[in-house]
Amino acid sequence: MLYVLSNEENLELISLAQQGDEYAKAKLITEHSPLIKSVIHRFCLKGVEYEDLFQLGCIGFLKAIKNFSEEFGAKFSTYAVPMIAGEVKRFLRDDGYIKVSRTTKTLAAKISCYVKSFRDSNCRSPSVEEIAKEFGLDVWETVFTMDSSKFPVSLYEQSDDERNTTVMDKVADKETCDDRIDKILLRQIIDSLGERDKKIVLLRFYRDKTQSEVAKELNVSQVQISRLETKILERFRSEFGVSSS
Questions:
Q1: CA-CA-CA-CA dihedral for 186, 189, 190, 195, to nearest 10
Q2: From CA 239, how far away is CA 189, in angstroms rounded?
Q3: pLDDT tens readout for residues 6-23
Q4: The whole model's pTM is what?
Q5: Is 223 exposed, middle or buried (CB count within 10 Å of its CB: 0-12, 13-18, 19+)?
Q6: What's the sign of the alpha-carbon dihedral 100, 103, 106, 110?
């Protein structure tokens, strides 16, 4: 459990904070600091101070407080996570720590065309869930693509189910905060790999091929694949802050 405030206490403090109560803002940040830290530690990169990332996370959190409404139909924590992550990612992207790949940009352009066509036909914007289904992605891959391209589609539109939940709540029910941030970061790391290394990741870890099978497909030796795979895994460990020992 990341925080101890009840939903009612959260809503009361948010209401006070939106009216300018500085104590309420400070209380919310203090009580939700484990949530903020859980999000930002996935973005800890060499050359970026942890305290700077935490301050960025707090800025995103304060934006979540300012803009949150019960009418979204989402829990506050569900709403806050992408706001926190988005603030950090914008900083990292603008400062060159995160590069948006050509593949992601191309996909974002296709999504943009689809959204325009969908809106013309249905007199509303598609939900993130509908976009994900159209392009064969999971919801968080779709979120990453749209966020990377500053795509203006709401993550909080009501989904088509009897519980009147939002897309964000449905994903939150299935994955932990850490799981979701890990998935976004993993996608970023894979996008930054060279074409050969991307293919090795695809064949080895998504299609369950052996090193020998991959070597045959890439016309290299099994020993070479082993060495390349070791380097790729070391990079993953480094990006996720995991010791190789």
A1: 180
A2: 8
A3: 888 889 999 999 999 999
A4: 0.46
A5: exposed
A6: negative
